[in-house]
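S1.2 Input.
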Amino acid sequence: MVTLMGDTQHPKAPRGPNAERRATTRAKIMAAGVKCLAEFGYAATSTPLVAKLAKVSRGSLLHQFPTKVDLILEVAEHAWLVQRDFIRAQVAKQPTGREQFVGGVQAVWKGLQLPEAIAVMEVMIAARTDPELAERYADFASERDAGLRRTRRRMAVGQLGAPEHVAEIDAMAHLTLAALRGLALETVFIGRPTREAEKVLALLEDMRRRMADDISAEQTKALPDL
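S1.3 Output.
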């Protein structure tokens, strides 16, 4: 099952009573961090506020995440994985490789409506003006981009059976994500109605459908005559 998102694996759950308590505390902090970023924005997010929303002591939070940037990057990683898994599940509902390729447009768009996606976008935008965050965000973004490239290569084989077209498929996947992320920024940060995005979604779907059909026609033409 493949999508436009990266393929970073979830970390293994720790073992033992203390580890379980730590994991429970971390889960509360992650949920609160997403809520804080999505509802209040990066500037308003702070370790005291996240601790309050998570209903944990600030000491417990700081024990795991000593600085705001430590916390923010961990929340961004958590939010990215939630978004990725949601999109994968949406794509998997489609019956065939071609339909999964075309259906990826709606899957990504739905994924970008999640609070987790909004949280990631908040961090992305904040990295432009926060020097400490920017320095460390580069590594986070690099890892995510590497995961996306691996997923797109699998898409070329698994969804369209066309490894020779990996460059074009990668470019289409990049275009889709960039366009839909821009639309999400318009609806979330500018307040433009989401219904205005439907024409863009339809255009992206048509572009993907045409690409899939062209690849299929090329493959059929290349078959030897029997």
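S1.4 Remarks. Residues 1-5 have pLDDT under 50 and may be disordered.
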